[in-house]
Amino acid sequence: MPPPSLTAAAASTQEKVAMGSEATNGVGIPHPADSRRRGGKKVHPAPPGGGAGAEAGADGATGSAGEWWRSRRMPDWCSAAGVGGILRRHPLAALFGCGLLLFMGVEYTIPMVPPAAPPLDLGFSATAALHAGIASRPWLNSLLAAMNTVFVAMQAAYILWAILAEGRPRAAMAALMMFTCRGALGCATQLPLPVEFLGSSMDFPVGNVSFFLFFSGHVAGAVIAAEDMRRAGRRGLARLYDGLNLLQGVRLLACRGHYTIDLAVGVGAGLLFDMLAGRYLDDKNVNGGTVSGSRCCSCHKALFSQ
């Protein structure tokens, strides 16, 4: 006779098989009684693991979010070593970041210039002594104006040489864009001529006719010419033009021919329109960066090629 333990195990196994057959009708199809509603609610099978599974289902969203957050790694620059590495590798970016924080505070605390007061220009303040010296010597004012006009003529001559003699139209295209934009802005917003302005008949334009202040075409034209010289490999000549452009800016401030912002935007405008002219010519399949020929017809083909 088998032991009682074996008898109990066999009875339990037979009971489970019988219950499974009853639930599936013996052919693997669930019994209709298993889908009945109890108390108006459909019965759902319990999740694996009993109470632990139910608890995990209740807190599933919180748990998954927590695991996702713990699995995220903080960026390297958030650490002290990361910040130190940025300062070493990108000092210019760090400087501009500090400048952003500085001027965010300045713009909310700086007093504005009253409507009846003259404009505040730090460049005018820095060149006050030079302005007084030029104002007391009209001949010096005319001499400096004449020298500045010669420099403007040098810029124009170089740009024309680049397109007519060397077949490189990029500088000419940039100058056309720049002066057109400058004229439109000068008409749109006409800034008052400084009270201390020192005009001269030797200045360009002659007699200061149609004198637009914003932005400086003198400075922008020199930048365009210098950038073209660098592309052509004339780096020494480009540095010379940069130096003359700096002296030109000092002279314009001392004679009150431009505000400081006119000169700063003139530099940016020269670089911007040089870049835009390059993109335009690239779109037209024109090589504006190398010397492609010495005949005038080559630039015409470059300008009108599609």
From TrEMBL:
Pfam families, per the entry: AtPDCT1_2
Transmembrane segments: 92-110, 143-164, 171-193, 205-226
Superkingdom assignment: Eukaryota
Entries under InterPro entries matching the protein: AtPDCT1_2_TM_dom, PDCT1/2-like
Protein name in UniProt: AtPDCT1/2 transmembrane domain-containing protein
AtPDCT1/2 transmembrane domain span: 120-279
Molecular functions (GO terms): diacylglycerol cholinephosphotransferase activity
Keywords, ordered alphabetically: Membrane, Transmembrane, Transmembrane helix
Biased composition (Low complexity): 55-66
Region (Disordered): 1-66
UniProt xrefs under PANTHER family: PHOSPHATIDYLCHOLINE:DIACYLGLYCEROL CHOLINEPHOSPHOTRANSFERASE 1-RELATED (PTHR34674:SF1)
Record organism: Zizania palustris
